[in-house]
C-alpha cells in the first residue's frame, strides 16, 4: 500500500474519505465534492437522521456520482476539541474500512474544520501516519488466503491544501511508523522464529540506519558477572544475548538516554512453570525489548539529534535439567545477591543486570526500562494505561505527557521503602518475589529494580504487560502486537533530549 500526500483537488475516481465537523459541516473541498456529486452527501447526511459529525461517527455513501465509488463521511466532533490524534484515527479507520473491500484507490480529505487550532499540514501528516499504522497486517504465515480476503487497497492519497509542508512533517512520522511496524512484527513472530540469537540478528540490521550494534554472548556476560541474567537463560538450549545499540546523533560528550528492554523470547515460567492455558501469549514477553528496538529504529531513521543507547536483554525462560531451581541464589553484576524463590519472576532478574551494565558503561542522563513485567499491572490498570514507576518527578511528567501526545497512556504508581519488607531474604541480599499475601506485585517488582539504579540516575520503569498486546482493534492499532512504547519513547527524545 502506497501512501502519498498530494495537493487538494476534487477526486474523480475511487473512494473518498471526508472529514465532517459537528453540525454536518464540510470543509471547502468537501463542499466542492458535494457539489460535484449533485449534493448527494448533504442528502445522505440528512437522511441518516442521527449523523451529526460527532467524533467517531461514520456514514458511507455508495455510488454518489461524479465517478466516485463511495464517499465515507467521518465525524470529527466539535472543532474546538479536534486534536492531531483525531486525524490519525481518521486515516487509520479509513484504511481499515476499505483495505479488503475490493477498492484499490482511496483519497483522504483531511480538512481541519474552522475553529480548530491545528495546522492543515499537521492534520494531513497525521492522517498519513494513521493510515500506515491502521493498515498494518501480518500475513507472512497465511498461505491459503482467498483473493477476496487479500488487501485490495494499493494507493492512499491524503489531500491537503498544504502538501509541501505536510510532506515535510510526514518524513519523520514515516520513520516512526517504520519503528512501530518493526516492533509489531518482532512481537508477533512466534518463539521458534524469534529467539535470543535471531532477535539479536534483527538488531544488527539497524546498522544500516547508522546504529552501532554490539552483541554480547554468554561468555562475555559471565566475565561481566551477570549471574542474574544468565541464571534465567540457563535452562534453555538457546544462548542468551545482550544487545547494545548506540545512536549518536547528538553532540559528542552529551550523556545518552538509556532505553533498557526485557526480552524474554518465551516465558514458560521455568521450573515454577506456568499453567498451559494461555501460555502461547508468552511469546510476546519480549515486548519491552521489541519497543526499544523499534524506538531505536525510529530515532535513527529520522536522524534525531540526540544520543540514545538501547540495551536489550534477550533470554528464553525454559525448564530443563540445567534450569535454575526455586531457592537458587545468584549474584548480579552489581554484586548484590538474589534468592530466586520463583523462576517465573524472571524479568527483573535479566533487567537488573542490563540496567547495571547500561549505567556502568554509559553513565546515562536518564534511563527508562520497558518490560512486560507483571500480571498484577493488568489487575491494576487493565489494558488502557501502562504502569509508570519513577524516582524522578520530572522524568515521570515528561513520560506522562509524551504518552498523552502519542496516545500511549501511562499512569504513575508508587515506589516506597515500605514495600522493601517483602523483598527480605533469609539467606541473600534480597529475594525475587514478595511472600504470599504481600500483594502489590507490580510495585514490589519495581522496588526490586530500583535497587539496581545507581546513585541518582533519573530512572523510570514502564510495566507494559497490559499494553504490549491487544485483543481488540483500534483505528491505528489493529489487534495483536501494538508496538506500545515506540511512539512514547520517540516523543520523549524529540521533546526533551534533542538539540534544536
Ligand atoms: N511475563 C510475565 C508477566 C506477564 C503475565 C505478562 C501476564 C503478560 C501477561 C512475568 O515474567 C511473570 O511471570 N510474572 C509473574 C510474577 C510473579 C511470579 C511474582 C506474574 O505476574 O505472575
Ligand atoms: Mn515470568
Ligand atoms: Zn516474563
Topology overview:
Layout: E1 2-7, E2 15-21, E3 25-26, H1 28-36, H2 40-47, E4 58-65, E5 68-77, H3 84-98, E6 105-109, H4 120-134, E7 155-160, H5 163-188, H6 196-204, E8 212-216, H7 218-224, H8 227-233, E9 241-248, E10 257-267, H9 287-301, E11 307-317, E12 328-331, E13 337-340, H10 347-362, E14 366-371, H11 376-381, E15 386-390, H12 393-406, E16 410-412, E17 430-431, H13 441-450, E18 459-463, E19 469-470, E20 480-481, H14 486-496
Parallel strand pairs: 1-7, 2-5, 2-6, 6-7, 10-11, 10-14, 13-17, 14-18, 15-16
Antiparallel strand pairs: 2-3, 4-5, 8-9, 9-11, 12-13, 15-18, 19-20
The kinds of small molecule bound in this structure are: ligand BES, manganese (II) ion, zinc ion
Share of residues in helices = 25-40%
What is the arithmetic mean of pLDDT?
Answer: 98
The biggest beta sheet is recorded as: 8 strands, mixed
- Please mark out the parts with pLDDT under 50 across 5 or more consecutive residues, or reply none: none
- Rg calculated over all Cα atoms: 24 Å
Features:
500 residues; alpha/beta; 8-stranded mixed beta sheet; elongated; binds ligand BES; binds zinc ion
